[in-house]
Specification:
With about 280 residues, the chain is mainly beta. It has 2 domains: about 110 residues, Immunoglobulin-like (Sandwich); about 110 residues, Immunoglobulin-like, CATH 2.60.40.2480. The chain contains 1 helix and 19 strands. Strands 10, 11, 12, 13, 16 and 17 form a 6-stranded antiparallel β-sheet that branches. Strands 1-2-3-7-6 form a 5-stranded antiparallel β-sheet, with no helix packed on it. The longest helix has 23 residues. The chain is elongated.
Length: about 280
Amino acid sequence: MQKAKFNILAILLLFISISILQGCKDDTVTNPPEQTAVDSTGLTRLGSAYALGGAANVVLFTEEPLHTGYNKIYAMLHDSTTGLLIEDAHVLPQLTDHTLGGPVEGTPEEANTKGLFPFAVIFLSPQAVADNVMHWNIKIGVHNHGHQGEPYGTASFGGLHIADNAGKFVEKDLPGGPTIYLSYINPANPVIGLNNFEFLINKTTDTVNFSPDTSYSIALKPVLLLNGTLSTGNINPVPAGELRHYTGKVNFTAAGNWRINMYMTKPGFSDSTYFDIGF
């Protein structure tokens, strides 16, 4: 009789132990639920990671391979316990390279019509071989508004290949002032005639904190490198919109390799730089 009681007690303790272990398991381990699909047509999947503590799985998509300068990125979030698409969340992207950072544009608080959270990052240097986990990383903070308790967690994306975007990214150390970074954005697919011209200037004094710099007047002088032909009818870019990108018009009178010379001025300062584009 005493042995039977002992066996019953042992079985009860076993069930209790199993229940406790099941309750302590991370929700990414136990039978991950089927995830709601989204339309990612035209985008390339960069990778996926779990936002530890935020009960969210994060997938990143890009419009083109990562490169120095401006990169548009989209985050897709799924609740790690239900598999449902997360459209109500605060997404906080961050760039790190060892102890340094990089400019980030956008901290979306809701998904777009496709269920994706758009933002942009500006890589300041190329990374040919991902040989160190401390090199360029994209970190995605997720404040999961739709999950019980609205948890917060961070997903990390490392092992990135960053191509050198020659002619479309410029770094300038200004005497006695900040370092500025000019990132080409548009036209992505130039044509003969007038094209929308768009770029971004960021500044920093410590390579940790960055902000857009809209303090310059810009005059354009595009030249066709083949024969030195200058184009006319350009519209000088000025900061515009919520993102404060410099926008204007550039006139390409023929197909070929063009250098968009830009003359930058502000009180007490003048300089020049350029972007190269070919089609």
